[in-house]
Amino acid sequence: MSCTLRPIRGAWLTGPLLAVGAVLAAGCGGSGVELGTRSLAQARQLWEQAGIRDYDLEWTSSGARSGHYRVAVRDGAVTSVRSVQPDGTEVAARPADPSYYGIDGLFRVLDEELDAALAERPFGRPPGTRVLQRFQPDPVYGFPRRYRRDVAGMPNGLAIDVIRFDPRPNTSPRTPQELPPLRPEPGQS
Questions:
Q1: CB atoms within 10 A of CB 88
Q2: What is the percent of the chain where pLDDT is above 70?
Q3: Would the CA dihedral through 61, 77, 33, 164 be positive or negative?
Q4: Which range among 22-26, 90-94, 99-103, 173-177 shows the weakest confidence by mean pLDDT?
Q5: Residues 81, 92: contact at Cβ < 8 Å?
Q6: Fewer Cβ neighbours under 10 Å: the N or C end of the chain?
Q7: What domains appear along the chain, each with residue ranges and CATH number?
């Protein structure tokens, strides 16, 4: 699969920045698709069609934001966020907005990342700065399994990796229409 750097606002790179761009392009390898409104919408649609409201999730981020988290989501809401320390111990995290730590939050992060790349000054860099953004949607559920962002001239990119996704049986009460039909006990008619 090819990998391209996207010019922002039609500018081009010269000299040392061109070298940085070449390094970014060479390092992008791997699977995934370019992050864009269409690819993100397709992944989100697959996630919404899956209808998973109860799951456990473990993900890491490195680069501009670093962390390792174990998250529980029940009935579509984040109920627990635990920060995994370098020694493997877990500490309860109390983020201001825990919803960013579930799958819907990861989609919001990618929305914000895309908006920042398309801004007049992408990620605070000069107009025309080149940005590489790729993500790998889960082929079954659509959630972002992996995301990579590199910006020419910035020392730290951003990497997000979902390392465990465990959908749980739906624990919400079902409506009568969703319940299987009753079968008579053996010997009864």
A1: 7
A2: 73
A3: positive
A4: 22-26
A5: yes
A6: C
A7: 15-169 (2.50.20)
Q: What are phi and psi of 114, to 5 degrees?
A: -65, -45
Q: 99: closest CA among 80, 81, 78?
A: 78
- Give the residue-averaged pLDDT of 124-142: 94
Residue closest to 60 by CA, chosen among 189, 148, 184: 148
Please say if the pLDDT value at position 100 is more than 70: yes
Question: What is the C-alpha to C-alpha distance for residues 186 and 20, in angstroms, rounded to an integer?
Answer: 74
C-alpha of 76 from chain center: 16
Q: Running DSSP on this structure, what letter comes out for residue 126?
A: P
